[in-house]
Amino acid sequence: MPVLLFALWLAFHERVTLDVIIVGVIAVALVSLFMYRFSGWSTKKDAQMVARIPAALVYVCRLVFEVCKANIHMIALVLSDDPNAKIQPKIVAHKTNVKTQGKRVALANSITLTPGTVTVDVMGDVVFVHAIDEHANAGLSDNPLEKMLENMERNA
Questions:
Q1: Were both Cys, which of 3, 79, 89, 128 would link to 121 (CB 3.0–4.6 Å)?
Q2: Where are the domains of the chain?
Q3: Whether the predicted model's global pTM rises above the 0.85 cut
């Protein structure tokens, strides 16, 4: 955590000078001391957080891929001259196996970022999603992002 805080400190400054480094080290030391003492943060939690970074990066890459895929579908739907191209919006209740609240929020936000779907509400393990058509609705049942979040929970 202190290393990340110091990197953030340096990123916010235009130039890296001796006074910026000294003030940064002092500020990071004070914030880290506060975190470790009053919030229950520990070096073990730091190591766990760093260990989760690769899985989070893979998740973000897959999310970008899914968003691009959904964009292509939406473009085809909008530009289609086919009168059989049916836009049938509906709200779907999708039961998820994701257990933790934080991961459910990540899933809900990922669904909302994907064109053609908007998360309306999350109640317990049910996510209510507005889907613009059957293709968007079908993507909820075998959602690879949900499977990745479930794997992250198992490996945590």
A1: 128
A2: 2-38, 47-155
A3: no
